[in-house]
Design brief:
Structural class: mainly beta
Order of helices and strands: HEEEEEEEEH
Strand content: over 45%
Shape: globular
Number of strands: 8
Length: 102
């Protein structure tokens, strides 16, 4: 596939995985979402979930790849997503000092 562009995402189904960790070995939470990309440009990627909630992602296309055909099961809900167009995987490292403040 040629290099992915923002235009390639519009109207497509995307499966998003976000891992929150303190260190590479200490995961504190994981979230999975899916929806349809309704906006994608140099400032934001907005994904509308089936329930109408919009999730905003940073406009970094390096985390987004064409999905392999098949069924994907969301661990939190057990929901099965069949043949999404793209996957987007994020790892967010959290400063433990910020957790204590919040």
């Amino acid at each position: 596939m040629e290099e992915l562009t923002y235009r390639d995402l519009i109207g497509k189904t995307i499966l998003i995985g976000i891992t929150y960790c303190i260190t590479d070995d200490e995961v504190i939470d994981q979230k999975q979402f899916w929806g349809t990309v309704i906006e994608a440009n140099e400032t934001v990627i907005n994904v509308k979930q089936e329930n109408g909630t919009v999730i905003s992602l940073p406009p970094d296309l390096r985390s987004t790849k064409p999905a392999q055909k098949g069924e994907y099961r969301l661990q939190s809900t057990g929901e099965v997503i069949t043949d999404p167009d793209f996957t987007s995987v994020w790892v967010i490292k959290i400063n433990p000092d910020e957790i204590l403040k919040g």
